[in-house]
UniProtKB/TrEMBL annotation:
It comes from the Bacteria. It is an enzyme of class 5 (isomerase). This is Peptidyl-prolyl cis-trans isomerase. Residues 122-271 form the PPIase cyclophilin-type domain. It holds the Pfam family Pro_isomerase. Residues 61-90, 250-275 are annotated as: Disordered. It catalyses: [protein]-peptidylproline (omega=180) = [protein]-peptidylproline (omega=0).
Length: 275
């Protein structure tokens, strides 16, 4: 015979499992309907700022409403499972499987170097270079080193440009639809005191712990209203004039948010240790 206490624990566990299932469904629905997939957060935030609306974070942070039969059941205290942050003791990161890869190259090794690096992005319009902060964003830099070595970014297009509100060029999706990712996700990094000034290189996401392959380059200075929710992992040191030219030509079809009128194709990405 099940005791009242055991029954209460069972109900709490079932309630928590329903919450997680609902959360996953919301995230998947957001990825399908927002037309930017792993960057739902950036899409909504960008759209929100352009429209002078409140900032929305995309993804699974909305509270789940319990069904009427669950009103007397205590809520579970365990947080939703997510990728673990960098572990300095072992020098490792956690990369969790996440949906179907837009270009399947596998997952990065858990062990990362946590050292600074230089990234060179060869585009159809010129070369863009950036220093990567491996100390503050080791999992992010480790992921980029892996993807670059697998030629994940080769032949991809920067699919999104915003010219009003916050000013960014967004890249990193092999499908150029805004919904593609590498098939894994990893933890946010370097968010404390994050600032998105001109030249900052940061990750796009659809909520906490959903980093994949999409990233954005900030080319304007009107970005203080962007919340510190997007991992800044590098700084552009050369080639911002390439982004400026794309921004000057504007968005395809007009407006302040959409595919850039002047196409930007990434020919290849290389990452080397900083000299």
């Amino acid at each position: 015979m099940v005791s009242g206490k055991d029954r209460q624990k069972q109900l709490a566990r079932e309630h928590y499992e329903r919450q997680q299932a609902a959360r996953i469904q919301r995230e998947r629905a957001a990825k399908r309907t927002a037309a930017i997939g792993t960057t739902v957060g950036v899409l909504v935030v960008i759209g929100g700022i352009v429209a002078a609306a409140t900032l929305l974070g995309g993804g699974g942070e909305d509270p789940t409403t319990a069904s009427p039969t669950d009103t007397a059941v205590p809520s579970a205290s365990a947080p939703p499972a997510g990728p673990k942050a960098y572990d300095p003791a072992s020098g490792s990161c956690e990369y969790l499987a996440d949906g179907q890869a837009a270009k399947d190259v596998g997952q990065p090794p858990a062990k990362v170097s946590a050292q600074p690096a230089t990234m060179t992005i060869n585009t159809s319009l010129g070369t863009i270079e950036a220093t990567l902060d491996g100390a503050k964003a080791p999992c992010t830099v480790g992921s980029f080193e892996f993807l670059a070595s697998k030629k994940y970014f080769d032949g991809t297009k920067c699919h999104r440009l915003t010219t009003e509100g916050i000013k960014v060029l967004q890249c990193g999706d092999p499908t150029a639809s805004g919904s593609g990712g590498p098939g894994y996700r990893f933890a946010d990094e370097n968010l404390e005191g994050a600032s998105y000034k001109r030249g900052v290189l940061a990750m796009a996401n659809s909520g906490p712990g959903t980093n994949g392959s999409q990233f954005f380059i900030v080319y304007g200075d009107e970005t203080d209203s962007l919340p510190d929710s997007y991992t800044p992992f590098g700084t552009i040191t050369k080639g911002l004039d390439v982004v400026d030219k794309v921004a000057k030509d504007g968005v395809e079809g007009g407006g302040g948010d959409g595919p850039p009128k002047t196409a930007v194709e990434i020919k290849d990405v290389t990452i080397t240790g900083k000299s």
